[in-house]
Structures are given as C-alpha cells and as structure tokens.
Amino acid sequence: RGSVKDFPGFDASQDAEALYNAMKGFGSDKDAILDLITSRSNKQRVEICQAYKSQYGKDLIADLKYELTGKFERLIVSLMRPPAYSDAKEIKEAIAGIGTDEKCLIEILASRTNQEIHDLVAAYKDAYERDLEADVVGDTSGHFKKMLVVLLQGSREEDDVVSEDLVEQDAKDLLEAGELKWGTDEAQFMYILGRGSKKHLRLVFDEYLKISGKPIERTIRGELSGDFEKLMLAVVKCIRSTAEYFAERLYKAMKGLGTRDNTLIRIMVSRSEIDMLDIREVFRTKYEKSLYNMIKEDTSGEYKKALLKLCGGDDE
C-alpha cells in the first residue's frame, strides 16, 4: 500500500550517471535530482549509491549533502538511506546532546514491527558502534524508559490465533491494574500492551470497553502521566490502526503556525513504501481535506515538490 514502487526498467549505473551530471559544474539541477530519487524505491536507491561509488569513487550521500541545503537536503538524504539506518539516525539525533526528543522515540518504537525493530537495533550498532538499548536507557527514566526497553525487544506476538479466555483475562488484568486499584500497576500495562499481538489486543480493547464502560485510552489518560502516558497511547493507537496514527501525526505536524518538518520528513519517507495510500485515505476521511493539499499549502519549493511526489496523489 505504498505510494512509491520499484521503477520499471531500472538501471543503477544510468541513474548514477544522471545524478553525477545533475551535480556537475556550477550549481545543481535540483529538479532532475528530485524527480529521479523520488521515483525509485529504497532498494533501488541503495543500488544507485553503490553504482555511484564504483563509477566515480565518490559517496553519493556526501555529494547530495554538499549540493543541497535545508529541509530539501534532509528529505533527499533520508530517502537514500535504508529504512533501518534512517530510523537509527533519527533516534541517535533524538537522544544526542542535551534534552531528548521523546516524540521521535515514541513514534518510531511504538509503530515499528518486530522485524523493523530488530533491523533498527542492528543498523544502530553498525552505524554508531553503540548499543541502542543502552543509549536509550541512559537517556530516559522511569516507566517511560522501561516501556521503551520492552518495545526494543521486538517480541510482540505475531500469530493470529486468538484465545477468548486470554482476551478476557488480559482485559480483566488491565482493569484491576488501573481502575480497580489504589495507585496503578504500571508493570501489568507494560506487559500486556508490550507483548500481545495486534489482533489479540484489539479484542482485549473491545472486551475492556465492555467490562469497564470506558475505552482503554481514557483509562490510560487517567492512570498514567507524562511521556509514559503518551507512549502507551501511541502504542494503543498503532495497535488499533497504524495508518490512523500516522495520519494524525502528519496533521499535527502541519496544522497551526509553523511546520514540524523533521516529523513530516520522517513519516513521509518511512511510510512511502509501506502504507502511504492507507494514511492518505484515513487523512481524507478524518480531516476532510487531502494530505496532498495540506502539504501543498504548508510547504514550498523543491521540498514541497519532493513531499508531493512521496504522497503520490491528491484525494480531493
């Protein structure tokens, strides 16, 4: 359900040459760079990088960084990295220096599949020669930290066999860990929400609503707080619908004054080959305007053109 697909009749060395020519001499042909890169899949872009290296003895990403600037540069360079390395870089930036970008950590770790998490951990190790879990633990605290560690294991159940007894038990355990308890048993929330399969947990949420009379989200808001609360809400959202979670993140990144460009870039790049069509559909229904139009009104220049190519079409 992605908007970006493999380019038919792909030729890596031809593309490498086209990019080389687009950056040769004084100034660069940004439109040529943009058109080529946004119409190739990530796998193909990685091959172009290799071809570029063997044809010109240069690093394509380094050349692109040199030729381009600002948000457009960030977007194009993000597209050139394999997804796991892109995620690794985002997380590295989120925890580097003073302060932490919790929203970035929440978005990536709450939404990725087991395999994507395993790939991310390996890419982080490869790129920075550091242990991702250790870095996250060193930069966060409390229940927020513990839940991030749970998610970093990438051990959510994936089978679609659902046991009704277990669904009822988990719903009851969540109720007893929160609403029916003086204080909150956070460990129980982490255990149930961190390991159950999506299908299982959706049924747990339905059952929970039935026995408690309120949606699990309302309980989380009432029982948990701070970044831990935000993380748990993101986990619940991604379990209900990843596409809806990202549609909402995109909307918030663009609404009001100013644009959260890093969020916008990260989501448009990371979802372009996975579920951009689903995100667009949810966006259209939920906000009564197309994602395409909102990007168009909110951004400018080559940056805008590239984002619109990744969006892949207008649903108005």
UniProtKB/TrEMBL annotation:
PANTHER family: ANNEXIN, ANNEXIN A6. It is found in: Basolateral cell membrane; Cell projection, Cilium; Cytoplasm; Melanosome. Keywords: Annexin, Calcium, Calcium/phospholipid-binding, Cell projection, Cilium, Cytoplasm, Nucleus, Phospholipase A2 inhibitor, Repeat. One of its GO terms (biological process) is negative regulation of sequestering of calcium ion. It holds the Pfam family Annexin. It comes from the Eukaryota. It comes from Pterocles gutturalis. Belongs to the annexin family. SUPFAM superfamilies: Annexin (SSF47874). A pair of annexin repeats may form one binding site for calcium and phospholipid. The keyword Repeat applies. GO terms for molecular function: calcium channel activity; calcium ion binding; calcium-dependent phospholipid binding; phosphatidylserine binding; phospholipase A2 inhibitor activity. Calcium/phospholipid-binding protein which promotes membrane fusion and is involved in exocytosis. This protein regulates phospholipase A2 activity. It seems to bind from two to four calcium ions with high affinity. May associate with CD21. May regulate the release of Ca(2+) from intracellular stores. InterPro entries: Annexin, Annexin_repeat, Annexin_repeat_CS, Annexin_sf, ANX6. This is Annexin. GO terms for cellular component: basolateral plasma membrane; calcium channel complex; cilium; melanosome; mitochondrion; nucleus; vesicle membrane.
